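Give me a protein, keeping tokens residue-aligned:
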Amino acid sequence: MDVASGTLMRLGDSGQMLADPGQDIRGRKVLDRDRNEIGRIAELLVDAQERQVRLLQVEHGGLFGVGATPLFIPAEAVEEVTETDVSLDRTRVQVADAPAYDPELLDRDEQMARLYGHYGYAPYWAPGFIPPRSGFFR
């Protein structure tokens, strides 16, 4: 287990369910702040210890899901959630320029710190962390 950030696991692999099924946003379109479509939410990465959604795994590109590239976006970037869409507070370019993150690596803390830093957020384990403002993931 990572000391700083805890263990993240895909919600689908965790055996857990969200308390409110309406909060399962997998499959919804992801829109940037200008309402451009970025992709669809493929999975939610959950902090196993805190039982909180920490990252959205968004698939973009490819054809019918084949060859799609995963992007990982901190839950803090979510501005609004509707029945069909998840809107971010960032542009498509900012999302595309985010550093890579690989949830399969054992030591992910440095990667995750860079990812959170790119979006301008303190990592959820660090001093100064502010929970997602959308209230959706609390």
In short: The mean pLDDT is 82. The radius of gyration is 14 Å. Strands lie at 8-10, 29-31, 37-47, 52-60, 69-74, 78-81, 85-88.
